[in-house]
Design goal:
- This protein starts with 14 loop residues before the first strand and ends with a strand.
- It folds into two domains: 270 residues; 143 residues, Sandwich (Jelly Rolls).
- It is mostly beta strands.
- The protein is built from two helices and 45 strands.
- The radius of gyration is 45 Å and the shape is elongated.
- The strands form five sheets. The chain has a 22-stranded mixed sheet that branches.
Length: 570
């Protein structure tokens, strides 16, 4: 049966179905009448009728006593409201109760759920919780949980919300539970909402746990927790821009829980005007900030009583502290900024100017002000670096600021990389002075290679290659070769009885790095030339290899390269 709202002072959109307790004081004409035994069956029937009718609406529980048996209530309506009459609507678990009393499977991204004004005791059930809205593939757009009074649940969490975009958790009392109280998780960082005017006390788990909940406001609540591994609030996994303000964290004697925890992925959280008060305890912390948290602000908080640690951070979070008060120590370090991730996460400027400032950690700061961010100007950094490098390198003076060789006022010395006078002298760039024997065969064997760096000769430089060979004094043929850039620039056949031979090549770049004029010589390379002057097209603007080989007509004879010298004149 579809009925009109039960109370003209409260209106709910859609159709209202009334669930009547077996001992209700106010009587209604409704087909949904409970017996005080497995009353969830009556509620499930009303839910099924509403879903069969294809309507959104309101299910209202009258005053009186309801007993939860062995079934859960599963709601899949896109938009539904479940309400009672406050302390007058009492729901008790039984020995048959297990799991969550209410399971909500959001069917679409427009789904919304409201639960208001119920009293619930979960003490007699096994692993019991009140609401699990983590089932289903849809996203809950709005969740309103208000004026709920709950005791002694013992599931993983009393209330679990997943894929929740909007949350209003207000004016609730949840006490004496052996579980986390409110667990909120969103798969994307879109959750906004408010948790306010609640009393969450005497529980052995965490009071509030959030994951991926952006811009959540936790304001004007009263917290405590009993377990020393638990926190009144835990902000986890990108719970960014959370505001925690005007709350009372009051842990009396025997309450061993911690206050607030912020993990290293939750940034830009504001912790303001809270009272952190405890009577006793060891190894506990009021505000615990993990490594990596950015832009956390703590202002005007009071740390009262016997907290062993007021604010704990590893020195790698960015924390601003102002106006905080402690009546037992001075560890709040007001008006300071603690940072290590601040600079790496800033925007980039490629070219600094003298007036720019650079952040640094003052390693000489005295405790408790260690890890404090300070600044220094770029002009001061340059001055300090100059003082340091002046101890390693010569300061500017004559010929030390060279833009071209024509700018020299006096020649560079050989030690400075010059020639020692105003005129060019050959510079040795490659050499080999140890003997290299050719193998006992008749092949052409490579005895030495060296690389002339590209651009070294310039357009008009000279390359001088000189080799000294020794071999067996017979008339059997020996062929000596010098190759450069893949071209054979000297090939000499020795067929007379000699003990050795001095061989060389002069190669001149002619107004280009890839045009050469050259000849080879034996003995003195100055004077008459007995061989034709030749031209080459070797690109000396890039690295080119010199290769020296030797070849014998008789394998058993000796042939050795005794020395090589390569010189350049520019």
């Amino acid at each position: 049966m579809l009925l009109t709202p039960f109370n003209n002072k409260q209106t709910y959109p859609g159709t209202t179905m009334i669930i009547q307790a077996y001992n209700a004081y106010k009587k209604y004409s409704t087909p949904y009448n409970c017996t005080g035994n497995h009353d969830e069956d009556v509620i499930n029937q009303a839910v099924a009728d509403m879903e069969a009718a294809g309507i959104d609406g309101h299910i209202h529980l009258t005053d009186g006593l309801y007993r939860w048996g062995d079934e859960n209530i599963l709601i899949t309506n896109p938009r539904i409201r479940l309400t009672g009459e406050g302390l007058a609507t009492k729901i008790y678990s039984t020995a048959q109760s297990s799991g969550y009393f209410l399971r909500y499977a959001a069917p679409s991204d427009t789904a919304a759920l409201q639960v208001d004004a119920l009293w619930f005791n979960g003490a007699l059930g096994t692993n019991t919780g009140f609401l699990n809205a983590t089932v289903g593939a849809g996203t809950i757009k709005d969740v309103w949980l208000t004026r709920l009074v709950m005791y002694q649940f013992n599931a993983e969490a009393v209330i679990k919300l997943n894929n929740c975009w909007g949350l209003n958790f207000e004016d609730n009392i949840i006490e004496g539970c052996a579980a986390d109280v409110l667990w909120v998780k969103c798969l994307v960082v879109k959750t906004t909402g408010i948790i306010t005017k609640n009393k969450l006390s005497g529980n052995y788990g965490n009071a509030i746990v959030t994951e991926r909940c952006g811009s959540l406001r936790i304001i004007n609540n009263q917290f405590d927790c009993r377990d020393n591994t638990s926190y009144c609030i835990k902000l986890l996994t990108n719970s960014d821009r959370a505001t925690v303000a005007l709350n009372k964290f009051e842990l009396g004697a025997g309450f061993n829980g911690n206050g607030l925890y912020i993990d290293g992925t939750s940034d830009a959280c504001s912790i303001n005007k809270n009272d952190f008060k405890r009577a006793s305890g060891t190894n506990l912390v009021a505000v615990d900030i993990a490594n990596g948290a950015l832009a956390v602000s703590l202002e005007n908080n009071n740390f009262l009583g016997s907290w062993p640690t007021n604010i704990s951070d590893p020195g790698s979070a960015i924390i601003t502290k102002k106006g905080n008060f402690s009546d037992n120590d001075a560890t709040v370090n007001n008006d300071k900024i603690y940072a290590s991730a601040f600079i790496p996460n800033a925007a980039t400027k490629v070219t600094p100017v003298d007036a720019d400032t650079v952040g640094l950690f003052d390693s000489e700061a005295v405790a408790p002000n260690t890890n404090i961010l300070k600044k220094v100007t770029w002009v001061n950094i340059k001055a300090v670096l100059k003082t340091y490098f002046d101890t390693l390198y010569a300061t500017l003076g004559a010929n030390s600021n060279i833009t071209s060789l024509s700018g020299l006022t006096t020649p560079l010395t050989i030690a400075q990389g010059g020639t020692g006078n105003a005129y060019g002298l050959p510079t040795k760039i490659l050499a080999q002075y140890s003997q290299v024997l050719a193998p006992a065969d008749t092949n052409e064997n490579t005895l030495w290679t060296g690389v002339v760096p590209g651009g070294l000769l310039g357009a008009n430089g000279r390359l001088l290659i000189t080799c000294l060979f020794s071999f067996t004094n017979t008339t059997n043929s020996k062929t000596l070769r010098i190759k450069f850039g893949g071209s054979t620039i000297n090939s000499t056949l020795i067929s007379t009885a000699l003990y050795g031979y001095s061989l060389g090549v002069m190669l001149f770049n002619r107004n280009s790095e890839s045009v050469q004029l050259g000849t080879f010589y034996s003995g003195n390379h100055y004077g008459a030339i007995s061989n034709t002057v030749k031209t080459y097209a070797i690109d000396t603007s890039q690295n080119e290899t010199i290769t020296i080989t030797g070849q014998k007509a008789t394998a058993g004879e000796a042939l050795a390269l005794e020395a090589v010298s390569v010189e350049v004149l520019k």
